[in-house]
Amino acid sequence: xxxxxxxxxxxxxxxxxxxxxxxxxxxxxxxxxxxxxxxxxxxxxxxxxxxxxxxxxxxxxxxxxxxxxxxxxxx
Length: 75
Fold this sequence. Notes:
With 75 residues, the chain is mainly α. The protein has a domain at 18-25 and 33-70. Helix content is 51%, strand content 0%.
């Protein structure tokens, strides 16, 4: 008896600023991606693969947190 295949986890919803979404849509034009969701998932998956190579410095992390805070994503 073959064990059932593990079901893929359900997708999560992320919110990004409209100007970023438009810039990404422009960037993906002419590609084989069928949607912005597919493009963003691909890019984030590749980024996740390379996190050890691209570690944030403490200053990078501080600047990122400041930006996320100013956009209202974190307190």
